[in-house]
Design brief:
Elements (H helix, E strand, L loop, with lengths): L3 E2 L2 E6 L5 E6 L2 E2 L5 E4 L6 H7 L4 E5 L3 H8 L5 H4 L2 E3 L6 E3 L4 E11 L6 E11 L8 H13 L7 H18 L2 H19 L1
Antiparallel strand pairs: 1-4, 2-3, 2-6, 4-5, 5-10, 6-9, 7-8, 9-10
Helix pairs in contact: 2-4, 2-6, 4-5, 4-6, 5-6
Length: 193
Amino acid sequence: MERLVLESLVTTIGDDGAVNVAPMGPLVDRALTQFTLRPFQTSRTFENLHRGSPVVVHVTDDVELLAAAAIGASTAALVGPMTRCAVTGGVILQNACRWYALKVVKLDDSQDRATIECEVAASGRLRDFFGLNRAKHAVVEAAILATRVDLLPIPEIEADLEQLRPLIQKTGGAAETRAFQQICDYVAAAKAR
């Protein structure tokens, strides 16, 4: 079966009841019936899932929220209203386009990056996806780069960001510009450490 990476936002719930919003690229089939989550075992998402937290994967075009979640910035002002899935109790971001509440069927934590096989327990559609936009995709790429500041040379990340910048300037709006600048600031701060 063909599998693709779906860039998304995942919500889980901590043992203190706090909602964790994290970007993740699960492997999915084209029909979006099966999801394979691959969180690092050092992540809060893994910690919550390992304790049995419900999990919801969101398809969204809100790159400002995705960027903030990727770099660990506060997402409180960006998340918007949340509801609970009646089937699993997972947290649904009401500003997302679609959501998939998952049931974990297999968890393999034998590697640093766990493999968690999931099936869809419930799903919903909240609004239309904006559509393909180069600036939004550039922010997604920039956010992924920002998550690798401890793995890749900073000058390499900065060079990649500069290649993405024209896409933001030519095809983005205020949200994409803010998200991209937040990522650039984060990388600059990492460089100064």
